[in-house]
Design brief:
Length: 447
Amino acid sequence: MSLLATKIENAIITTDGISFVGSVVIRGEQIAEIAHGHNATCSTPIDRVVNAEGLRLLPGIIDSHVHFREPGYTHKGNFSTESHAAAAGGVTSIIDMPNTLPQTTTQQALREKLRLAAEHSIVNFGAFWGATNENAATIDTLVTDAVAGIKIFMGASTGGMMLNDKQALQKVFDKAKVPIVAHCESQRIIESESTNMRQKYGNNIPIQFHSLIRNRKACLESTQEAIRLAKKSGACLHIAHVSTADELDLIANSPDFITAEACISYLMFDETDYTQLGSRIKCNPAIKSPHDREVLLKGLSNEQIYTIATDHAPHLLKEKEGDALRAASGIPMVQFSLPAMLQLEQEGLLNIEQLVTLMCHHPAKLFGIENRGHIREGYQADLTLVAPNRPFEVTKDIIQSLCRWSPLEGRIFKQQVVQTYVNGALVYDHGKFPLPESRGQALRYRH
């Protein structure tokens, strides 16, 4: 049986460091042909044409840092609801973090999480294996083509996972055959500052003091230790959600196998925003100073930042209530990461080619994701179409995440995702999901 072919024609295509007007032909799951020029002729027989005149065609976004909450916390989010949010934002592949219930710290838990994703996710999916003090000795059993990497929490965060035993930590760095993604905060400093704040404020610590409890020293000290271990072992180390200028400078002056991830929340907010948004922007590590945000924004274009992710972490609003210690940490962001980055592009903080490198090419390269992250013939047809002059406001009624809120509510973004293709299937189309039974595929890796 012949496969149907769709031609997306006259789009402004961005991939591999260049932008050009042309057409892309999708045949089945893959990109069959790319043609340069306006009204370019294609050799592939066409069944359907999508007029993309004036629209941007980008590789589907790869968000390599999400918490979709399944299994165990499905009252906050699940693979169905959060993958719909991802697709609505042009995200075609996600990699889920291990602090679920049960934690993804065994091969069985990993297989079960991937099974759930295969049943419910409309975008492609992968998962990290979580290293702990208890399971570090089993690191040799990892099936490397089925896991994106190893996640370590060097300071406690949501889910209670932590790797702080020195021997176990050394073993992970020595034995890792896949990238290590590190949450770097010093638990010693966090506990000390928490005690100080409790003595002063009791159980009502002002929310803005979250940045003083999980402070820059806590981040820097932990990042220094992770880098020391990586240099000693030669392990590929990716520092998650960098929040300070000091860390970024430290990583930028490290070997090439040590890289930095920036998350949307730290690019969009700083600690002055607590006044208006309160606990809605509480996350771990904490949002830092305007200077830190400014340095992170500069890192988008000067090659100090290697990937952009979201750390998408939905909580119910009632769980976000409370003081600096009791309010839940985490921000839902996957649906609006691309519009937010396109806004920064429009403001001149980076160009569209750099954006695509940070959100598509580099995540694919870092984790060895096969046949995705670029618009290339023979690659899976993971694509997103963006209208560059179609403003929209973030309102509750368009939010797809189960938690139904965003700290970005009320913001107007000038560029809008209009279509998202996952493995050639049109899963999102102008606010609708035309293929409710469509499912993404498990990512495969060549580390």
